[in-house]
Amino acid sequence: MLTKLIAQSEDKILALMALYRNDPRDTKIDLGVGVYKDASGVTPIMRAIKDAELRLWQEQQTKTYVGLAGDPAFSHAMKSLVLGDAVKADRVAAVATPGGTGAIRQGLELIALADTGATIWLSDPTWANHPSIIDHLGLPRTHYRYFDPETCTVNFDGMMSDLAQVKAGDVVLLHGCCHNPTGANLKPIEFQAVIDLLNKTGAIPFVDIAYQGFGDGLSEDAAFTRAIVAGCPEALVAASCSKNFGIYRERTGVLFAVSDNQPTRDLAQANMAYLNRQNFSFPPDHGARLVTMILEDENLRSDWQTELEEIRTGMLSLRVQLTEALQSECGSNRFGFLAEHRGMFSRLGISPDAVQTLRQDHGIYMVGDSRINIAGLNAKTIPVLASAIAKVL
Ligand code: LMR
Q1: Which domain covers residue 226, as residue numbers?
Q2: Which of 129, 182, 247 should be mutated for ligand 1, with most atoms under 8 A from CB?
Q3: Helix, strand and coil in the chain, % to nearest 5
Q4: Do 123 and 200 reside in the same domain of the chain?
Q5: What is the pLDDT of residues 11-45, one digit of tens each?
Q6: In the chain, which stretches have pLDDT less than 70?
């Protein structure tokens, strides 16, 4: 049987991680996978997580199963973090999932289970794992214009004109904030027009929000998601705790399904619990419990928010430093958009050849589409990157 398997195409981000690891040069720079690193290159465990872990170790008396949907306290805390009070609780079904990817996967499976023949519309470009999971599930997909490679900003007119073609019942996948891979985001003033168009066409929004707190602030980054759940009769929201709580390997995420009445919400809740049971039974609990403890405890929460804010402003400062370094190396404002982008990533808009040369000749690793992880930079590596980019252009 196993001989009948065919080779699967490798995930480009994860393949890059392996290439980087195997590069013996000690001057190498990793701007690949989306993991936050501090100025010394370490991905720290956040203080509030450490404190919560210690308390959990002291207080937890059992490791018995929780529930198929995870701990209701986690869903409640995450609902308030992500959705705020944009929607009444009796409209929201929620299940804990293994990370944000798990939430995406369960959301897509829920769409498949509803069996409406929906096509999934993805931004062009999007996180490479979106189309990969959709193809794996055999769901139809297409894309809408999103990024203007000339200006490295959102092609809002192109996006709106493509979304006007969406059929009723189709699903539109939107990035809640900090678009991955481009770093280019909608302006708040544009949110309502997108929501009006979704409602006009009868499309169902599916929001992927994996970087809340990494862009303009916790509530600012949730504003689009909240406006969507407040303004659309149905919506799916996949939220990740990997980045903003720094608990990547704990696999902590949540899927929300928002419906316009309670019986439909209950039906969605039962289907989502069923899907968890089919795929992995109970979702991981450790990370979810730490997140709940932090969000429910005033001191832990305040410390977490302070550290998250340091991370966010640190990335903004790296953006400004990189923009200035590139301006002086290249003698132009070609990369001025970097200071306007938000989140961990920006797409530089340089050619695949240039990306390859940066890797081979300079030991600088970025994804093939020229996506860089801003948080992989520091004061020492910014001048190195800027001068290397100027050389390969
Ligand atoms: C990324 O885009 O680098 C992150 O979301 C990590 C991943 O799983 O790809």
Answers
A1: 65-296
A2: 129
A3: 50, 15, 35
A4: yes
A5: 889 999 999 999 999 999 999 999 999 988 899 99
A6: none
